[in-house]
Design goal:
It is a single chain. This protein is an alpha/beta fold and about 240 residues long. It has 2 domains: about 120 residues, Rossmann fold; about 110 residues, Winged helix-like DNA-binding domain superfamily/Winged helix DNA-binding domain (Arc Repressor Mutant, subunit A). The protein has a 5-stranded parallel beta sheet, with helices on both faces. Helix 1 packs across helix 5 and helix 6 crosses helix 8. The longest helix is centred in the middle third of the chain and has 14 residues. It is globular. The relative contact order is 0.11.
Amino acid sequence: METQNRRVLLVEDARDIQLVVRNALDPFCTLDTVSTIKAADAVLHQESYSLLLLDITLPDGDGFEYCQKLRNQNKFSDLPIIFLTGKTELESKVYGFEVGADDYITKPFEPEELKARVLGKLRRSKSVESSFMSKGFKIDYHLQKAFMVGDAGKETALPLTPIEFKLLGHFLKNEGKVFSRQELLDLFWADSAHVSKHTVDTHISSLRKKMGEKGGHLRSIFKQGYSFSVPKGSEDHVAGFRI
């Protein structure tokens, strides 16, 4: 199987949950387990992992804060992170994605569902481009940062949240296509059934402001959704490229 030998780190202090996760994933990937944030930090800086399963309530700290800390470090900016937690409140789920999680699984969970979501994430993250440039923006997946590129090639970092970063990259790659609110929820909020469609409006509005003058190119299409397109005659002079 293509995901065999991929290493996954589980940060979880409950032994029964550790056992369930191990039984679900062990045949398909190598699973290491630690019970504290301190231990996780030490292991992550010594070993290389393909995915992190992270509890939120841990003996020595908060998983939300630790996820955000990892996202601010270049080494871990593109490490897939899945919260595995007993926090079922909508506010916790939304906040989990805000601080940079790729998925959010609540306890109790079905082992088969956990396996499917973990393996799906491992497959999708197998090959990821480093960066690309389009329409005066540069998206750097390694740094998890977006930049505005001026006429002289000067790059100015945009203060985007993790979801705003993903939204901008998605619209730039799909110029002219219209995406409904539900499609965007399904793409960027894994537990979209429990997130209001107005959440999309809030993030789009914030993203537009941070895009400056080019924010007007991210348009609301009546009764359809959102689309990014640059009118002919106002094309950016910087050619697109991929690394």
